[in-house]
Inverse folding.
């Protein structure tokens, strides 16, 4: 399996070294898209995809496609989506919205009840008499967070996200995980930051590769945490990977699902920065308890954190709160604390979206130095450690509040 995943990484990683958080610009040519649809065969049949298209619309790099499936088609709709999306991606299509309608089967087969789409899979509308929609086809309805099955061994999954890169998301995530552990909880960490997997360096496990047991990755132990990072698989830590759309989400879902996580109270996921399709898809497919948004005072001003909150609101993931990083400047000479970017941004943001401010962290060289040398603040016990520990307590408080609400409303209790 390792080779398979490594290959996936190698294929995707076609431009190592180039830091590029957005899709590399590929000029989209509709004739080339036609060619793909003409050569792709619907698996298990002799039909070319092009024959089955009833409606097609491209908006920028998003392709909306309606397909009328042949009678009796029993294939896996999600696999069909992923296969097509992978084929179209090199042609510049970053998002594929597939609307599938299967034709009625006559006779006894028709009497059979349509099979419900398996959990987390794309639905197929099993009624040919229903007209194929003439309006813009809708994106296949993803499962709601409350419908996702909880992970059997993980009580709470917390995603740490940011609207933009470089705000200190990974540093904060790693210290949050360690501070949660300090409360006595069992904690794991998944580094899903494909653009800059820095967690191995921060936890002193750069260059180590995970063992494989029963076709599953065994997380690497680091300061007591169970850790898995994309950086531990690509071999070259900190090498950014330019991945787009379905390839990125596919690989990240594989990492999450094919890792033998031990019994954990918390799994902290360091998300890729930004609020695009990858983040949205991950948020829709992983049973998340809540999200923590990391931002800086400048980014609050630039509305980036708002975008993060809105993304999670859109997919009904509770935002546990906002952490304002590099909010204060501590003078290394005299210890004077200066709010160089002004005060109150995090509070205002929290008030606007009804999410708490979980904490504010200073811009401090000890935070950077300790993270860069593999002993983050919480392990090193520097001046910022108590701040991270307080943030962890605030996160636990918010998660517990949610648990009470879910229990009351009869929803999934993580
Ligand atoms: N509070 C802080 N004080 C000083 N340096 C910090 C602080 N937080 C983070 N840094 C430093 O800022 C740099 C970027 O941090 P980090 O890698 O955590 O950001 P990020 O948001 O995860 O970036 P990306 O999303 O692009 O991977 C690192 O060198 C880190 O040590």
């Amino acid at each position: 399996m390792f080779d398979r995943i490594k290959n996936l990484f190698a294929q995707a990683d076609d431009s190592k070294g180039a830091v590029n958080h957005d899709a590399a610009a590929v000029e989209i040519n509709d004739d080339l898209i036609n060619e793909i649809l003409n050569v792709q065969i619907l698996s298990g049949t002799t039909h070319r995809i092009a024959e089955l298209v009833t409606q097609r619309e491209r908006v920028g790099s998003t392709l909306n496609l309606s397909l009328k499936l042949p009678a009796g088609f029993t294939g896996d709709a999600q696999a069909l989506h992923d296969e097509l999306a992978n084929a179209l991606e090199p042609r510049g299509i970053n998002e594929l919205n597939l609307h599938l309608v299967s034709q009625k089967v006559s006779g006894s087969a028709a009497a059979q009840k349509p099979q419900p789409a398996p959990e987390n899979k794309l639905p197929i509308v099993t009624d040919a008499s229903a007209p194929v929609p003439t309006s813009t086809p809708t994106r296949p309805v993803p499962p709601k967070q409350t419908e996702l099955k909880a992970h059997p061994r993980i009580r709470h999954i917390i995603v740490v996200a940011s609207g933009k890169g470089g705000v200190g998301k990974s540093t904060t995530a790693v210290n949050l995980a360690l501070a949660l552990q300090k409360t006595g909880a069992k904690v794991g960490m998944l580094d899903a930051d494909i653009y800059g997997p820095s967690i191995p360096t921060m936890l002193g496990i750069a260059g180590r590769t995970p063992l494989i047991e029963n076709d599953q990755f065994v997380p690497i132990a680091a300061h007591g945490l169970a850790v898995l990072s994309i950086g531990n698989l690509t071999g070259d830590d900190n090498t950014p990977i330019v991945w787009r759309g379905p390839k990125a989400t596919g690989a990240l879902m594989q990492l999450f699902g094919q890792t033998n996580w031990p019994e954990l109270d918390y799994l902290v996921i360091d998300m890729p920065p930004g609020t695009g399709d990858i983040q949205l898809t991950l948020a829709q497919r992983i049973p998340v308890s809540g999200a923590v948004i990391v931002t800086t005072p400048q980014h609050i001003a630039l509305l980036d954190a708002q975008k993060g909150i809105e993304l999670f609101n859109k997919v009904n993931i509770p935002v546990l709160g906002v952490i304002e990083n590099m909010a204060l400047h501590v003078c290394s000479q005299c210890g004077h604390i200066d709010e160089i970017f002004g005060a109150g941004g995090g509070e205002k943001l929290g008030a606007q979206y009804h999410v708490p401010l979980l904490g504010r962290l200073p811009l401090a060289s000890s935070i950077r130095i300790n993270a860069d040398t593999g002993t983050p603040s919480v392990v090193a016990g520097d001046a910022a450690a108590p701040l991270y520990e307080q943030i962890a307590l605030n996160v636990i408080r918010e998660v517990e509040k949610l648990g009470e609400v879910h229990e009351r409303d009869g929803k999934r209790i993580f």
Summary: Residues 4-24, 106-123, 126-140 have pLDDT under 50 and may be disordered.
